[in-house]
Amino acid sequence: MTASTPGVPRVGCLPAGPLDSIADVAGVTVGHCTLAEGGLQTGVTVIRPHGGDPYRDKVPAAATVLNGFGKSVGLVQVDELGVLETPVALTNTFAVGAVAQAQIRAAVAANPDIGRALPTVNPLVFECNDGYLNDIQRMAVAGQHYDAALADAGPEFAQGAVGAGRGMSAFGVKGGIGSASRVAGGHCVGALVLANFGTAESLTVAGRLVGPELARRLALPDGAPEPEKGSIIMILATDAPLDARQLRRLSLRAGAGLARTGSVFGHGSGDIALAFSTAYTVPDDAARPMPALALLHETLLDPLFRAAADSVEQAILHALWHATPVQGRDGHRRAALLDVMPELRESR
């Protein structure tokens, strides 16, 4: 995907990186494994923070839980220690355990003393519920699907109804994976979202409320709007030298980008943002030297905050623009936004 995605409204005034994706942050790669057969519409998406072993060379990280209606694994330790030690995995709600186990197995394969001479490893898995399109009760995602997504990781990757985004819905239409980036203050901030949230009547595209017309075209019943039951996972990467406390502040600004699209972080929505920095790594072994670097001053964070909000909003639009129609469980179907509102292709 390049920065010239056809017809997508441009968010904000900051420049994007050359790919307009999270992979504009050097070293970050993304891979998918997609399961798409009949009622099985799901998958796994993996974000690698760098090309090495994240257990040996951890990256600083922090998360913000805007609304905690979710079943993620690993957030407690990230909150306590402020580092990632596995790639970040995205999948469906009932696949969290299988993917976490696959992460553990991969870490043990690379470091056989984990859980013995070495400390245990903290898997990190986020989820959204794709049960409208996907027969989630089949619990079809297994360890090999995580392995395949990890092996697929690269700087160029598909968006829309792929990987963990295959069965996701957003604003009453097809959701999924979206990514974007912004450059500010001499640093890059990249976002990747798993979009499975929003009510049709609330959709706002680059400041323009299009939701009421979308709801009309989807022939939704009049009256009180449906409650927001979906979720979104927002992953931010940056090359700025930030510590975990500063990264928590950055992750919070993902909520600004999310709100601009029409979300109110509803009761039944799991809205979680995680931010990590690639500027340095933290060694697993106390005998190895800790990094010595100057962190970014607090007063210089505002451009990165803007970049975080803009890249998340743009990533959500990319998820909607790249999504294709999917039919899944029991004949359930989600149309693509651009099929329902084709005029949006030219609404730049």
Automatic annotation (TrEMBL):
<dbReference type="InterPro" id="IPR005321">
    <property type="entry name" value="Peptidase_S58_DmpA"/>
</dbReference>
<dbReference type="InterPro" id="IPR016117">
    <property type="entry name" value="ArgJ-like_dom_sf"/>
</dbReference>
<dbReference type="GO" id="GO:0004177">
    <property type="term" value="F:aminopeptidase activity"/>
</dbReference>
<keyword id="KW-0645">Protease</keyword>
<keyword id="KW-0378">Hydrolase</keyword>
<keyword id="KW-0031">Aminopeptidase</keyword>
<comment type="similarity">
    <text>Belongs to the peptidase S58 family.</text>
</comment>
<protein>
    <submittedName>
        <fullName>D-AMINO PEPTIDASE, DmpA family</fullName>
        <ecNumber>3.4.11.-</ecNumber>
    </submittedName>
</protein>
<dbReference type="Pfam" id="PF03576">
    <property type="entry name" value="Peptidase_S58"/>
</dbReference>
